[in-house]
Amino acid sequence: MNDTDARAAVLAALREVAPDVEIEDLDTASRLRQDLELDSLDFLRLLELLADSTGVSTPEEDYAGLTTVQALIDYVAARG
């Protein structure tokens, strides 16, 4: 999957999980938990939506590296 498709998938998933976040103005350096205020259930739902839309499953041992929107985009792009 290329970066553009991965970015679109991540932003679409974020729209569902965090409807209050202004996606159009989102800085991809934003931290998922601290800046976007995703709790652990939101984070898991985000990963579930991404798995459904891209086929990219995320093993638990990779969770710690997925701290920002850009890290998630890069992760999906590399594995999609």
Automatic annotation (TrEMBL):
This is Phosphopantetheine-binding protein. It comes from the Bacteria. InterPro entries: ACP-like_sf, PP-bd_ACP. Residues 4-80 form the Carrier domain. It comes from Agromyces aurantiacus.
